[in-house]
Design brief:
- With about 375 residues, the protein is mainly alpha-helical.
- It is about 60% helix and about 5% strand.
- A two-stranded antiparallel ribbon has the order 1-2. A two-stranded antiparallel ribbon has the order 3-4.
- Strand 3 and strand 4 form a beta hairpin.
- Helix 8 packs across helix 10 and helix 11 packs antiparallel against helix 12.
- The longest helix has about 30 residues.
- The protein is flat and about 70 Å long.
- The two termini are about 35 Å apart.
């Protein structure tokens, strides 16, 4: 049976919709979606303009003059500019994201390992994951921001509140991301590991070249959700006195007695989350459309046995290539000293099984 899936998602029938909903396709579907959009927007506008307190609500949250003052700042009135404070959120998010990915992957690797030497470390990270997934982030921010300076550890206790906020975010979200990555690693079929080990790859190379590329593709959607939450939770660092965009909006609201600055801060968070979601979704869609078999995502050529003929006769010689397969099409090109061969993806799994069973040599070079 072929592994190719030529049917795109756009041609897949909607099996979960009612019969009436499946009738609204083409022009009928366009008309129905347009009418429903107009009705929804009209209902929202009607509430804002017809409600008894609609005028007060619009003045307090959608006053563009006060929103401009909050965005640019006003030093004489003590209003911090939202346009400068947002960079605090951005750098805290970027630094925390890198640290969370590193520590999350490390914790996931420790938890799935079975080495007896790592038993105490494995127990420790298990307790850490359970504790920090259950403690609210706001409490962690208070504990780190107020507790670490109280320890009087010299350089460690003399950092800025923003640094302690990054530490609190990293501690909490590393626990979440580690579980997401561990689930993605465990979702990789066990046959992939057996095939890699039968070809002579070390456990580290197997994890780096075979398991992680497939696991990362699986966990991109939940990772995106965690990072959107991380980007929003940078606003909680304001309880330590950090002037970030949410705190700047609160200062402008208490000074101008108008909440338009808070709306501007909310628009920033919404735009950042939406832009990141659209970008990663488009990348995932392009990857999914280019990949014909789920197990073949970013598999190196070293994992694909390529048949050729030796120089003395017609006996097939199987070799493992050394270069990465750059194409994710239905065929894959392997390069090694002495030959260049192209194999359809449908022929790879049987050969991989023959390697795993020991029927074929794992490393027989044509040039040797």
């Amino acid at each position: 049976m072929s592994l190719d899936t030529d049917a795109s998602s756009s041609n897949t029938p909607n099996l979960f919709g009612s019969r009436r909903s499946r009738l609204f396709v083409g022009r009928r579907g366009l008309a129905a979606s347009s009418i429903s959009t107009v009705l929804l927007v009209g209902a929202i506008v009607l509430i804002l303009f017809v409600a008894p307190g609609g005028a007060v609500f619009r003045y307090y949250f959608f006053n563009f003059h006060d929103m401009r003052i909050a965005w640019d700042g006003h030093s004489s009135q003590g209003i911090s500019a939202l346009s400068r404070s947002l960079f605090t959120n951005v750098w805290m998010f970027l630094v925390s994201e890198v640290l969370v990915l590193f520590f999350g992957l490390t914790i996931a690797w420790v938890r799935i390992s079975h080495t007896p030497v790592l038993f105490p470390v494995r127990t420790l990270v298990t307790v850490y994951t359970d504790v920090f997934r259950g403690v609210p982030l706001l409490i962690v921010v208070y504990l780190v921001g107020d507790g670490v300076p109280a320890l009087k550890l010299g350089f460690v206790s003399n950092q800025s509140p923003a640094i302690y906020g990054v530490v609190a975010l990293t501690l909490t979200y590393s626990a979440y991301v580690s579980e997401v990555l561990r689930a993605g690693i465990n979702s990789v079929p066990h046959g992939q590991l057996l095939a890699a080990r039968s070809l002579g790859l070390t456990p580290t190379s197997t994890m780096r070249r075979v398991v992680l590329p497939q696991a990362v593709r699986t966990v991109i959607p939940p990772l995106l959700n965690d990072f959107v939450s991380l980007q929003k939770d940078t606003a909680l660092v304001s309880v330590l006195g950090v002037i970030e965009i949410a705190n700047a909006g609160q200062i402008s609201a208490s000074t101008l007695f108008n909440g338009s600055g808070l709306v501007a801060a909310a628009l920033f968070f919404s735009e950042a989350a939406t832009s990141g979601g659209i970008y990663f979704s488009s990348c995932l869609a392009r990857t999914s459309s280019a990949t014909k078999a789920p197990w073949a995502f970013m598999v190196p050529c070293a994992m694909i046995p390529c048949p050729s003929r030796n120089r003395s006769g017609n006996t097939p010689v199987y070799s493992t290539g050394t270069s990465w397969a750059k194409s994710l099409s239905t065929k894959r090109t392997c390069k090694s000293p002495g030959f260049r061969s192209t194999l359809p993806l449908t022929t790879i799994p049987p050969m991989r099984n023959r390697f795993a069973a020991g029927a074929l040599p794992a490393t027989t070079w044509l040039g040797s």
